[in-house]
Amino acid sequence: MWRTGLLASTALLAAVVLTGCGGKPKADEPVAPTPVEAARVAAPGASGSVTGAGTLERRREMALSFRIPGVLTAMRVEAGDSVRTGQTIAAIDPAGVDARQQQTAADLERARRDVERDKALFEKGYVSRQRIDDRTSALKAAQAAYDAARFDRRWATLASPVSGVVLERRAQAGEVVAAGQVVARVADLTSPLVLRLPLSAREAARVRVGDAAQVTVEDLGGQPLTARVTRVGEAADTRTGAISVEIELSAPPANLRSGQVAHATLQVRAAPGAATAYTRIPAEAVLEASGQRGFVYRFDNGKARRTAVTFGGFDGDDALVAGLPDGAQVITAGAGFVADGEAVRVVDPTRLAGPVGR
Q: How far is CA 326 from CA 171, 278, 289, 330, in A?
């Protein structure tokens, strides 16, 4: 990014220097300012914006699956179908759970008879108290097995838990499905559309619930949509280290759908510990970095001013430095061709329009 521009700018500056080698300027001729590129940076304590991209989805989206395995005998919805609460989505062959329920019912009936018989024998002194206790425990186990089988029988039919729309169907009738295997996904259309952004820990630390955001979707022509931050994750993803930030769209258009990719810009405050935080500047602006010491050239009223900074290392195409005032303009391309106090001119003034280091 910055470094790609550096190659082109360096070539331009080198050409300017070589052109000027044809002869020394006369004493009465003014020396032309050296062309450079510069970028405006923000102080560590400045507020700014954070950008990211993610996928739109309803806040309440559910992946439906059976609690027990079986053969799928019916799949009664397709993607895009509207459903109501309690409507049957799919069903599996109940023969296996029916047989288990009958078996557990028989075991329960036998356990009850054993308890009643042994209680009568206990009153006559023919069996011990331990025998009665064992029979009672067996009865409780049989009752629990019967209740579990009856509960499983209820799960042979899968019903929609909400009124909404089917987002996806993942199985066909005739397939053998495992317990917990997703067969369909449904969304509650009364829940808001949200965008969940994966942000780095450094960026997420600057986000607060209630912060304003603008969301754009390419499929809608980039029209900005108003939104706000509703949740900031408390844990990082174990694989990527990213923290999820949830943004709720205030008034999404009717043609916006779950699954569409969207981009968001959040207006945020200064990072925690801003007094000691580093400023991000283009890496090519740093000269003679050694340990925690480095130098940059600031663009100051048409002059290049050599400025010492505290160097904190590189982060991608940026360098982390401390010691620059808010709004400082650092020379990027061409910094290696100028001297302290030399007259310079910015050849790409658009780079000064917006700050970096946010």
A: 58, 12, 21, 11
Rounded mean pLDDT of 288-313? 78
pTM higher than the cut 0.90 = no
Q: Are 271 and 42 in contact (CB under 8 A)?
A: no
Nearest to 82 by CA among 171, 159, 158, 167: 167
Q: Is 53 within 8 Å of 47 (Cβ atoms)?
A: no
**In which element (H, E) is residue 281 found?**
strand 279-282
Angle between helices 129-154 and 95-123 (to 10 degrees): 160
- The per-residue pLDDT for 315 is 63
Please tell me what DSSP assigns to residue 140. Answer: H
Q: Token pair of 147, please?
A: 């209740």
What does the alpha-carbon distance between residue 143 and residue 81 come to, in Å, rounded to a whole number? 41
d(CA 229, CA 282): 29
Residue-wise pLDDT for 191-208, tens only, equals 899 999 888 887 788 788
Q: Which amino acid is at 205?
A: A
Distance CA(342)–CA(310), nearest Å, equals 23
Q: What is the pLDDT of residue 109?
A: 94
Query: What is the distance, to the nearest Å, from the Cα of residue 217 to the centroid of all Cα atoms in its chain?
Result: 17
Residues contacting residue 78 through CB under 8 Å, at least 6 positions apart: 166, 169
Distance from C-alpha of 83 to C-alpha of 106, rounded to nearest angstrom: 39
- What are the pLDDT digits (tens) for 88-145? 999 999 888 889 889 999 999 999 999 999 998 888 888 899 999 999 999 999 999 9
> Who contacts 338 (Cβ-Cβ below 8 Å, separation ≥6)?
34, 36, 297, 304, 331, 344
Query: To the nearest 5 percent, what fractions of the chain are helix, strand and coil?
Result: 25, 40, 35
- pLDDT band of residue 265 (cuts 50, 70, 90) is confident
Can you name the residues that pair with 131 across neighbouring β-strands? none
